[in-house]
From TrEMBL:
Residues 22-73 form the DUF1156 domain. The keyword Coiled coil applies. It comes from Halobellus ruber. This is DUF1156 domain-containing protein. Residues 163-190 form a coiled coil. InterPro entries: DNA_methylase_N6_adenine_CS, DUF1156, SAM-dependent_MTases_sf.
Length: 883
């Protein structure tokens, strides 16, 4: 019978708190709030975009429950108070009690230290897939030596600036920004003015709204590609209605219901704003001809773009105290708006010196840029190249290129390399919203960013934001710079937000700065040659084709490369690494099999780098049972055993309805000890008991959903399997990890099929089994003590005696059933054969009469395991198979 996690012998390695339990409820309630307010919870992660970034609170909790294993190596400082030692340090026995009190039913004892400035001694941590750097940042806050690897230069640069932030001088940053502002801001802002509709003065442009145009293939008319005529939702006193564009006079007017027929207040034209001229193609407003947008773009050699509306903010009207709807609103385009764009375009055409600050790399063919070029798919139609974009700079208009080049040139003049890199970081992140690849979200009165769908989706109505920025507007260079500064300030004085008595509380600043003792490397982690070096590997590895990082990150890379190619070798190539990326990408001739092979290589490298008593803890995304099997197989093949899994989120209904499930989970694994062979019959019973015990304890003591409980059950069951990986025998065949996962999934979804024979085998494995043991083992199963007594599987006439093959009364019971030709169980058959084998009696007549099933083979393997009597296995392997 299996031993529960947390019951390690003194001679074995320490069981870590994260293996015994994890405060899922506490982490999730913070994660939910952090998702909505990243800038307030952990501003360091909002300095620059990275994809699929995990919440900081998740990795802080993982670090807390993973790195804290010896109370003598832990110091706890009170946030604020100049980092003085807390009361916990004066009573190290209390810390020891917190560590030892963590258990599955109640893991929250250690949670008391979550908002504390906790330090650990002599811990070296590896993140081989650091991505946006969350694990490095969080582990560095514990005083650990944190080492990160990532193949992608953009990920490396973003994380480098995160861990450098705590050692960066804020005054130097502010002075450098002032220099850039004085240098170029007014030049840029002059191109983002518009005549204010409320007087004879100019207002600031927040957004210029553009529409693409194609020619009608029948009559030659110019067709604007409006999906509908919404400009922006009504605000302030105009809430409930919409500002819309009149397709006749091109005025911006207000209507109560954009889905109903409306009358233009300027020209009396009647139209329905929801009915544009895009419907699986574009429709000519003059002749009604319908044609495919992509076909039109390719046949006409591209598309034109026309400015049709402006969202403005007027500082003059604001200072006069005018109503909010006049201070900030929408207006039609005027000649001055067109003139300013033409002026900017003319300046750009004549700015040869500035053009060297604009990337001229071509957009490489890829699954995210033209999926039609490759066999295989990752879902969705990705065809930015077919939309007429050839170079990365084609995603920007002339005014944007002029503004961005001016800022880049000014950044290039900053002598302090570290400081200039933070300005470059801000500019790079501002690209997301300052490109003609972003649409305007009229229902929310704001622009989106280019990676809203983690792909390149050219909009038919792109929006051009104010690159430098004004009082309002999303993703301007100035507002992104404020986010960078906030991130650096946080790195100097990190705090922790947590829930206390139902309310969100923010701690005082910690004295441990972010990034101390951390280092980052831009290379393939599979080249890491470390052995027995790291105490923990904490990471978030890639998942199949979830995000094609290399292709998406090229959008940032080519701009960063302008200033960094002479500083860092990793920015010399024209694009980010493709072939070496661990991802299922048809454009690189990589599918699921290649991904699984490469992630296995990565886990193997991590296994070698880890100390024998170390731990691997990582977050992962799953979508189906097969993914669990692949992951479990990969981990076990390279020498790990899974010891726990916990949900971050899961679709609980699908989990128990047997459908495909999307999981975000935490997986904990340790280097495996020597693995023992086991029969599937024995392992199945262990798995069932483990799942049953886990579910019961969680249901009785935790406020978790069924889906969450199911994920924890999976982890406990995986641990049972991991101890025997590659040595699980069923009917003479070795089971694969995938086959076992299928069975485990069934146990968790459908519950018990444990019957009398299974309970009997459990009793055989129980030292000095008693009637009390029988009662305990029968609970929650399909077996009852009464039925087992009827089957003569035990008797009470001379104490509690099991009905084994050498028990006279048990054999007499079986013999009577054989003689009267009654139906026999597989256990009856196995014990009867064992008895006759022992006494040298012939078995051939019975073998000829009975069907030798896989169930009988599996039972004999289980009996051999339970009793240590290999005669059962010998019967199976010789007499039965020979027959």
């Amino acid at each position: 019978m299996s031993k529960e996690i947390g019951q390690s012998d003194e001679s074995e390695r320490k069981t870590l708190p994260i293996e015994k339990g994890f405060p899922i409820e506490r982490v999730n309630e913070i994660a939910e709030k952090e998702e909505r307010a990243k800038r307030h919870y952990r501003p360091i992660y909002t300095m620059h975009k990275w994809w699929a970034r995990r919440h900081g609170c998740v990795f802080r909790a993982i670090s807390l429950y993973t790195l804290l294993d010896d109370y003598e190596d832990i110091t706890v400082h009170e946030p604020g108070k100049n980092g003085t030692l807390s009361d916990y340090r004066s009573n190290s026995g209390e810390i020891q009690e917190l560590l030892e009190s963590v258990e599955l039913a109640n893991p929250e004892s250690l949670w008391k230290l979550y908002p504390k400035d906790v330090r650990v001694e002599d811990k070296k941590i590896l993140d081989p897939f650091m991505g946006g750097g969350t694990s490095l940042v969080e582990t560095s806050r514990f005083g650990a030596e944190s080492v990160g690897y990532d193949l992608n230069p953009v990920a490396w640069f973003v994380t480098k600036k995160e861990i450098d932030a705590g050692q960066t001088d804020l005054d130097e940053l502010e002075e450098a920004f002032r220099q850039v502002k004085e240098d170029v801001s007014e030049d840029i802002l002059e191109y983002y003015r518009t005549p204010c509709p409320n007087g004879d003065h100019m207002a600031d442009v927040m957004y210029n709204m553009w529409v693409k145009e194609l020619d009608c293939v029948s009559c030659g008319s110019t067709v604007p590609l409006y999906k509908d005529y919404r400009v922006g939702k009504g605000r302030y006193e105009n809430k409930g209605g919409y500002n819309v564009l009149c397709p006749a006079c091109e005025s911006v007017v207000f209507v109560e219901d954009w889905k109903e027929e409306s009358t233009c207040s300027e020209c009396d034209h009647q139209f329905t704003p929801s009915e544009g001229n895009i419907d699986r193609g574009y429709i000519c407003q003059d002749c009604g001809q319908k044609y495919g947008v992509l076909d039109g773009i390719q046949e006409q050699g591209g598309f034109d773009q026309r400015l049709y509306a402006v969202e403005y903010y007027c500082p003059t009207c604001d200072s006069k105290g005018l109503s909010k709807s006049k201070v900030k609103g929408y207006k039609a385009v005027e000649e001055e708006d067109i003139r300013l764009y033409e002026e900017a375009s003319k300046e750009w055409a004549n700015s040869d010196e500035l053009k060297r600050y604009i990337p001229d790399e071509r957009i490489p063919p890829g699954i995210k840029t033209d999926s039609t070029l490759f066999e295989g798919s990752i879902g969705g139609g990705h065809n930015v190249l077919r939309h007429g974009f050839k170079q990365w700079k084609d995603m920007f208009n002339d005014r944007q290129l002029l503004a961005l080049a001016k800022i880049l040139k000014s950044i290039d003049d900053i002598e302090n390399q570290n400081v200039s890199e933070y300005l470059l970081l801000a500019l790079s992140d501002a690209l997301r919203t300052n490109t003609m690849m972003t649409p305007y979200q009229s229902s929310a009165n704001k622009s989106n960013h280019i990676f809203k769908s983690n792909s390149f989706d050219p909009p038919q109505q792109p929006v051009e934001g104010n690159v430098w920025g004004t009082e309002y507007g999303m993703g301007t260079f100035e507002s992104i710079w404020e986010m960078v500064v906030n991130g650096v300030e946080y790195a100097h004085n990190p705090t922790e937000r947590y829930i206390e008595d139902g309310d969100t509380t923010e701690s005082s600043p910690f004295s441990q700065k972010i990034g101390q003792g951390a280092s980052v490397h831009c290379e393939d982690m599979r080249k890491l040659d470390s052995e027995n070096e790291f105490d923990a590997v904490i990471t978030d590895p890639p998942y199949y084709d979830n995000v094609i990082y290399s292709e998406l990150s090229d959008f940032f890379y080519v701009w960063l490369r302008v200033l960094l190619k002479d500083e860092y070798d990793v920015f010399e190539p024209e694009k980010t690494p493709r072939a070496e990326s661990i991802v299922a990408n048809p454009a690189a001739q990589k599918g699921a099999a290649e991904f699984e092979d490469e992630i296995r290589q990565a886990f193997n490298t991590a296994s070698k780098a880890l100390k024998q008593d170390g731990v691997l803890a990582f977050t992962y995304h799953h979508s189906d049972v097969e993914s669990w099997g692949e992951l479990l197989s990969a981990l076990c093949d390279v020498g790990f055993e899974v010891t726990a899994t916990y949900p971050i989120s899961a679709d609980t209904h699908k989990f128990f309805e047997g459908e495909a499930v999307s999981f975000d989970i935490i997986i904990v694994a340790r280097p495996a000890n020597e693995r023992d062979p086991i029969s599937w019959n024995s392992l199945r019973r262990n798995i069932y008991r483990t799942a049953q015990k886990t579910r019961q304890r969680l249901e009785e003591n935790r406020d978790l959903s069924r889906g969450d409980i199911g994920v924890v059950e999976m982890g406990r069951c995986f641990h049972e399997y991991s101890k025997h990986h590659g040595k699980v025998e069923r009917a003479g065949e070795t089971m694969t990890a995938k086959e076992v996962v299928d069975e485990i999934y069934g146990v968790i979804q459908h519950g018990s099929d444990i019957g009398e024979i299974d309970v009997f085998l459990d009793l055989l494995e129980t030292p000095d089994a008693s009637y009390d043991d029988l009662n305990k083992l029968s609970r929650g199963t399909n077996a009852t003590p009464e039925r087992m007594e009827d089957m003569r599987l035990y008797r009470m006439d001379d104490g509690f005696t099991l009905g084994t093959w050498d028990d006279e009364k048990r054999i007499a019971y079986i013999q009577s059933r054989v003689d009267s030709d009654e139906e026999l169980t597989d256990l009856d058959k196995a014990q009867f054969l064992r008895y006759r084998w022992e006494h040298g009696k012939s078995v051939s007549e019975y073998l000829g009469e009975w069907e030798i099933t896989d169930d009988l083979r599996e039972l004999c393997e289980g009996l051999a395991d339970a009793t240590g009597d290999d005669t059962y296995r010998n019967i199976l392997e010789s007499r039965l198979s020979d027959f």
